[in-house]
Amino acid sequence: MTANEKAKAKTEQAVGKAKEAAGKAVGNERLTAKGRAEQAKGDAREAKEKLKDVGEDITRP
Question: Most buried pick, 18, 38, 47, 49, via CB within 10 A?
């Protein structure tokens, strides 16, 4: 996983978690849902990068 992609994934996850918490705190379901979606996007980016790393390990002699 490249450092840049890892940082993007972690940032999306953290921002999503903050939005979800803020949404819950003020009772805003839309903000809560946006936060969950952003966390999922970060999780997907992280999984994609891990999969790329595994693929590179398999193809190396």
Answer: 38
This prediction has a pTM of 0.80
Instruction: Please answer whether residues 35 and 16 qualify as being in contact, where contact means their C-beta atoms are separated by less than 8 angstroms.
Output: yes
Question: Alpha carbon 30 to chain centroid distance?
Answer: 19
For residues 12 and 7, give the distance between their C-alpha atoms in angstroms, rounded to a whole number: 9
Q: Mind listing the pLDDT tens digit for each residue in 19-47?
A: 999 999 999 999 999 999 999 999 999 99
Are 2 and 49 spatial neighbours (Cβ–Cβ below 8 Å)?
yes
